[in-house]
Amino acid sequence: MIAIALGASLVPAVAHAQSVASATSPDGTVQVDVTIDGDGRAAYAITRKGKPVLAPSKLGFLFTDAVKIDRRLSVTGQETYDHDDSWTQPWGEWKSIRNNYRALKVHLKETTTLARGFTVNFRLYNDGVGFRYEFPDQPNLAQANIADELTEFSFASAGTAWWKPAFLWNREEYLYNKTPLSSVANADTPITIKFEDGTHVALHEAALVDYSGMAVARTEGNTLRAALHPGAGEPKVQKKGAWNTPWRTLIIADDAAGVYHSHLMLNLNEPNKLGDVSWIKPGKFAGVWWNMIKGEWSWARGPKHGATNANVKRYIDFAAENSIPHVLVEGWNVGWDGDWFGNGHDMDFAQPTDDFDVDMLVAYGKKKGVRLIGHHETGGAATHYENQFDKAFKFAADHNYMVVKTGYVTDAGQMEREDADGKQYREWHQGQWMVNHQIRVVQTAAKYKVGIDSHEPVKGTGLHRTYPNWVAREGMRGMEYNAWGGKNPPEHEANVVFTRMLEGPMDFTPGILSLKGERDSDILSTIAKQLALYVVIYSPVQMVADTPENYAKYPEAMKFIRDVPTDWEDTRVLNGEIGDFVTIARKERSGKNWYVGAVGDEEERNVTFNLNFLTPGKKYTAEIYRDGDDADYRTEKRHSIAIERRTLTSADSLNMRIAPGGGFAIRLVEG
Ligand code: NOJ
Ligand code: CA
Fold first, then answer.
1. Final residue of a domain: which of 538, 562, 586?
2. Fewer CB within 10 A of the terminal residue: the chain, N end or C end?
């Protein structure tokens, strides 16, 4: 009885919350309200067009060695200011990015003797909100040992959520769940939610630096709470002096397309720190890869070794014939013999195997205009990798590699760290130490003018703005899962566009025109969909992932892969529903041509869209690669494709059929 009475006495305190600060986005669409209740608990709420998006949601921290911060807070001041400018992306989905927000900074302090103070810095955009905590250096929090954040996201409506589980052994490589928001478990961000009224919200973070990644855990009803990724032990995050969290971000839009169009995450990152990055040239890459993933070749030395002089030369020839500027080679270095999964101690990233004559191959490629992409598979031995950073990246630079692909193949929580004192730890892929490790990789690579494509990475939070040599990353179930059992279902890419793609460039490795995985198993796609992925999935370094022998069987479809660029001036999501279908139009950088790609799910459907993005008054030759009338991912007709030419203008609209498991790709050539 007493417990119930005590509990009950705490509830009305929330109702007594007083508004202490408020601001709207530049055009008034989005509003943030900060309140403090009778117990001194601070909360923030978000409305859009007057409708609640987040109900009052708590703020605060748990520490491992100090009393938590959540009650007995008071406001000591606040400021607002406006910002509006534009900046140019060296490469990207859009060339020019407008950064227009209103800032609201709310200064809070405990009324207790600890008197710990901090600022909540909100940036209100017309399409969402970012906010972060900022702590000044202070005697009662000189060292913050953070057990977790108490930051809540208390959604004001029921809805449907698309999310990937967090903290499981296979890192970020899980299929998306579609559940009621009220059934979300531990989820990684981005998590995308569709409210019952159709409003779409994507919850994520920006500028993840010297902190651990934020997952979320549902507390009750439609409320999620920040759940930080662990590290080797408690606390999850350690900070000294003045510090801040990454930005917690909520994109809010009328529909799925609106979520994709937001630049909020990029804008919340710091500008380019590398200066001239003209040495990064977006482009496609072929790779000594798919045969390894399928198990026909090996990374290790021996009779099945893939990275031999003869094979690499053949891939260079194929790349040159198809204007592909790079060839990825995996298994080129010493260290793969034996069991490398979770064990990268033998990996030497400056020591090629005897049957890989790097100087000869670099020279051979140079004659043909093709550069190699090196591969650094750490097997999770992160410190072992750091110990050879300079040697590894000097080797890459000396051999003219523009990009290195990294890998961290080990189970979650099994990353190896060894400190200078010889002590060993097991870290998590998205913990604070690994977040910092990944930035050290990118910084070191930049010193040598090398780009990074990270596999088994830390999720993307827009740091490619700050470090434009961080050209791509994996961080989801890519094409490789189609080589193995348990293939990606047809809806996968329509999920990925509105979830994982919100993190930025993705090394999905499209273009398996053979539609065959290991032991001749069928991939759940049509051939037209494989072409569509070059438009739908964005990466400045996009793989042409099948083998030269397989591409030779599909010369007509191959033309689209040869033509499609990997760098864009403008991007428009023309339509889409998460997990069902999406159509994206992109205009090539420094050119006049447009490309359209669409993917569906397991159902047959028609999509209609108009071409009003084209320049009015101009004629375009449309090269259309669509599912054949009998195409179907479930039958031998998955290779059925119709390739047509039409003349179109901005006044036209198209009605296109997408087969089950299908898609289409269109090249629109001006003039
Ligand atoms: C998994 C990566 O995703 C894949 O691309 C790579 O080939 C293997 N690990 C080996 O490093
Ligand atoms: Ca992987």
1. 562
2. N
Cβ–ligand 1 distance for 507 under 6 Å, the answer: no
Q: Which of 289, 290, 293 is the pocket-test mutation for ligand 1 (most atoms within 8 Å of CB)?
A: 293
pTM over the 0.90 mark: yes
Question: How many angstroms is it from 553 CA to the middle of ligand 1?
Answer: 26
Distance from the alpha carbon of residue 407 to the mean position of ligand 1, in angstroms: 6
DSSP class per residue in 561-592: HHH--S-EEEEEEEEEETTTEEEEEEEETTSS
Q: Are residues 496 and 549 in the same domain?
A: yes
Is residue 6's pLDDT more than 50? no
Give the tokens for residue 342.
């979770």
pLDDT in tens, 106-117: 999 999 999 999
DSSP three-state, residue 634? coil
pLDDT for the residue 380? 98
d(CA 482, ligand 1 centre) in Å: 13
Please, which residues have CB less than 5 A from ligand 2, an ion? 455
Q: What is the CATH number of the domain that holds 11?
A: 2.70.98.10
409 lines ligand 1 (CB under 6 A): yes
pLDDT at 94 over 90: yes
Q: Is residue 436, in this structure, part of any structural domain at all? A: yes
Could you tell which of 409, 453, 474 is best to mutate to test the pocket of ligand 1, judged by most ligand atoms within 8 Å of the CB? 409
| 346 lies in the same domain as 252 | no
- Please say if 604 is a catalytic residue: no
* Pair (329, 458) in one structural domain: yes
**Is residue 156 located within the same domain as residue 242?**
yes
Pick the catalytic residue from 474, 480, 491, 503: 480
Binding site membership of 480 for ligand 1 (Cβ less than 6 Å): yes
Question: Is a pLDDT exceeding 90 seen at residue 202?
Answer: yes
Q: Is 427 in the pocket of ligand 1 (CB under 6 A)?
A: no
pLDDT at 240 over 80: yes
In-domain check, residue 430 = yes
Res 4: pLDDT: 38
329 half-sphere exposure, CB direction, 13 A CA radius = 35
Angle at alpha carbon of residue 537, lines to 531 and 541, rounded to 5°: 95
Residue 119 lies in domain: 4-267
Same domain, residue pair 203 and 81: yes
Q: Considering its fold, how many domains does the chain have in total?
A: 2
Residue from 507, 552, 534, 567 nearest 663 by CA: 534
* Residue 318 shares a structural domain with residue 217: no
> Strand 424-427 to strand 61-63: parallel, antiparallel, or no bridges (unpaired)?
unpaired
Ligand 1 in contact with 491 (CB < 6 A)?
no
With a cut of 60, say whether residue 294 has pLDDT above it. yes
The crossing angle, in degrees rounded to 10, of helices 389-398 and 432-447 is: 40
Q: Which of 236, 267, 298 is the last residue of a domain?
A: 267
Average pLDDT along the chain: 97
571 domain-assigned = no
Give me the helix-helix angle, 309-321 and 358-368, nearest 10°: 10
Ligand nearest to the CA of 342: 1
> Residue 201 belongs to what H/E stretch?
strand 200-206
Q: Which atom of ligand 1 lies closest to the CA of 478?
A: 3
Would residue 610 count as lying in a domain? no
What CATH number should be reported for the domain holding residue 557?
3.20.20.70
Q: Which residues of 27-41 are buried (b: 16+ CB within 10 A; e: fewer)?
A: eebbbbbbbbbeebb
Are 379 and 524 found together in one domain?
A: yes
> pLDDT per residue over 475-499, tens digit each?
999 999 999 999 999 999 999 999 9
At residue 7 the predicted structure's pLDDT band, cuts being 50, 70 and 90, is: very low
My answer on whether 260 and 324 are in the same domain is no
End-to-end Cα, the chain, rounded Å: 81
